[in-house]
Amino acid sequence: MTRIHNLLIPAIIILLLCCPAAYAGEDDDSDLSMRVPDVRLVNVEPGSINFAPDMTDMINGWTKTEEITAVVSANTNWVLTIKGSEEYWEGPWQKPVSDIYWNLAGGEYQPLTTQSTEVASGGKCNGSGYPIHMKVELDLSQDAPGEYYYYVIIFELTSP
Amino acid sequence: MNTEHRRIRFFLIALAILLLSPTAWAGQSISVNDINVGPATADDFVAGQIYIHAQPIFWQSDVPWRITVRSVNPNLGASDDGTYIKPLSDLMWKLSDDVTWTPVTQEEDEVDYGADTGDGVIYVDFVLTLDWLKDIAGNYGAELVFTIGAVE
């Protein structure tokens, strides 16, 4: 009998101490999940250019050069393209899109078209700037003084 | 009193202490929801994070309590192509009415505690940091364990 008590008492105490209700708390799980897709972002600064040709520009046949910057951020590979929104400017006559010329960082000027043209390409980046110069060809016989012409240029950042 | 009686008395006292201990019979429960956010957008990347507001944690306790949180996983998982492991420290939490963020770890961190009994709810905010140069496409996340226990 004494031997039984010698084993029983410590056994019960150990059992109680190890009992889950004695110490352990309750818990519940929360699965936290997030999908990250391929993300590309381009911002053009400034968002608009105002060409204001003077007499000298009209005689030379070109506006002064303006610069815009395409700021690119992406977590994957990308291609930056440029294209015109319409065949003609909005204005008093059908001034063609090809009167707009652009280049990247001092490269060779090329006329804008309504087809996407590659400007630059790259990989992961955060706010990389690509300076683009723009100028407009003027036609002294068509571009009448005092008239306004508008045009929308589209920049896109796409998958290679 | 012989040795046998001393042993029995010791046993009964120990048993009484254990049975009367508040922690022995604490009635406690906790309930949390799964959290699914995203897909991450360009705006999220520009902000540098996805902010998850005021996730409720429902608790019930008939003794003073404390709630802890830990991650089962050592990290937030791998990118689709397996080249990037998002670190667990990119996930942080705070009580909604606090201002200090705490990175989630695999160790139990105390979220809140109270002497009030009954039931209630606390609200926790999470933030998942995003970096254009690191966070390539993938499914990221962790299994979080919220535990309620009695205050020792």
Q: Enumerate the strands of the largest sheet of chain B in spatial order, edge to edge or round the barrel.
A: 1-3-10-7-8
CATH topology of chain A: Immunoglobulin-like
Number of strands of chain A: 9
Radius of gyration of chain B: 22 Å
CATH class categorisation of chain A: Mainly Beta
Radius of gyration of chain A (CA) equals: 34 Å
SS summary, helix count of chain B: 2
Summarize the biggest pleated sheet of chain A: 5 strands, antiparallel
The largest pleated sheet of chain B is described as: 5 strands, antiparallel
Major sheet of chain A: order of its strands? Answer: 2-3-8-5-6
Oligomeric description of these chains:
heterodimer
Number of strands of chain B: 11
Count of folded domains of chain B: 1
Taking the alpha carbons of the first and last residues of chain B, their distance comes to: 35 Å
CATH architecture call of chain B: Sandwich
CATH architecture of chain A: Sandwich
How would you portray this structure in words?
The complex is a heterodimer of chains A (160) and B (152). Chain A has helices spanning 2-18, 20-23, 55-60; strands spanning 26-36, 40-45, 66-74, 78-84, 100-104, 110-111, 117-122, 125-136, 153-158. Chain A is α+β, with helices and mostly antiparallel strands and 160 residues long. A five-stranded antiparallel beta sheet of chain A has the order 2-3-8-5-6, with no helix packed on it. The N and C termini of chain A lie far apart (85 Å). In chain A, 16% of the residues are buried. Chain B is an alpha+beta fold. Chain B has a single domain (26-150), classed as Fimbrial-type adhesion domain (Immunoglobulin-like, Sandwich), CATH 2.60.40. In chain B, 16% of the residues lie in helices and 48% in strands. In chain B, the strands form three sheets. In chain B, strands 1-3-10-7-8 form a five-stranded antiparallel beta sheet. In chain B, strands 9-4-11 form a three-stranded antiparallel beta sheet, with no helix packed on it. The mean pLDDT of chain B is 90. The chains are: A alpha+beta (160), B alpha+beta (152). The interface between A and B is large, with 37 and 58 residues. β1 (26-36) of chain A pairs parallel with β2 (35-37) of chain B.
